[in-house]
Amino acid sequence: MTPPDVARVTDRTGEPRRPAAPPSDVMAQHSWRIPPPAAPQLWRYEARRAGWAAGVAAPAALLVAAAMALLAGNGGAGRRQIGDLLLTGLEALLPLAVAMTAVTLVARDGCRELQLALPTRYAHTLGRRLGVLALAAALSALVYSAGLGLTGWWTGPDPLASPLVWAPPTIWLAALAVLLAVLGRSVVVATSAVAGLWLCEQIFAAMLVGHDWTRPFFLFTTSRVGTGEGWLTNRLVLTLTGLLLVAVVALLLRRPHLLLSEEEE
Length: 265
What we know:
By secondary structure, the protein is mainly α. The protein has helices spanning about 5, 25-30, 40-50, 50-75, 80-105, 110-115, 120-150, 165-185, 185-205, 205-210, 220-225, 230-250.
C-alpha cells in the first residue's frame, strides 16, 4: 500500500502532484518590504542621532544666565539688574545656544552621503533632528519662565506672552544658522557668522534701536528696550522673517547634494 504521506502528493496516474501556487495575497504577506518604524521608535532613534548636545544646549544656556544673575546679586547688583540678566538668558543666550547646536546637526553627520541614497528624504530626517532640538529648547524656556514667575523674578511682558520673549529670536537666529550651514557646508563659517551677528547686535544695540528700519530686526528688544511701543511689531517681524528663512532652507534641501562637503563628493 502507498503510504498516506505519498498518496497526498500523487495523482491518479501515480505521478507526483505539484503543489498549488500560493494565492497572491499570501505572497504579498511574505514580501521583503521592510515596514516603516513606529513613530515613537523613530523619534527615539533621531534623538540619539542628534546627540546629547541637542538636549543639553538650551538648559545649559539658561543655567549660565542664572549663574550670572547669582554672581551679580552677590556683587551688590540691584533687583532690576538681576532681573534683566535673567531675561537676557531667555532672549539672548538661549537663541545663540540653539543656533550653534543646529549648525552642528546640519554639518556634522558621518553618514550623510549614505542618507542621501535612501528612499526617505534627508530633509525629513534632518527636520526631525532639528525638531528634537526645538522641543528641548521650548520645554527649557517654558520651565525657566515659569520658575521666574513663581519666584517673583519675571520682568518681561505678561506671562501669557512669555513665549514671545524667546521664540522669535530663536526661530530667526536658528533658521539663519541652518541656512548658512547648508550654503557654506562649513561649521566654522556658519558658527562664525552667527556669533559675529549676535555680538554686533549686542555691541551696537543703541544704534540698531535708534533707527526705524533696523529696530524691527533687533533680536534683544525685550531685555534691552522693554515691552513698550514697537515691541509687538518687533516680535512679529522676527517671527515672519524667521519663518521665511525656514522656507528658504526647505527649498534648498530639495537639492540635498548641497549638504555634501568636498571630501564627501
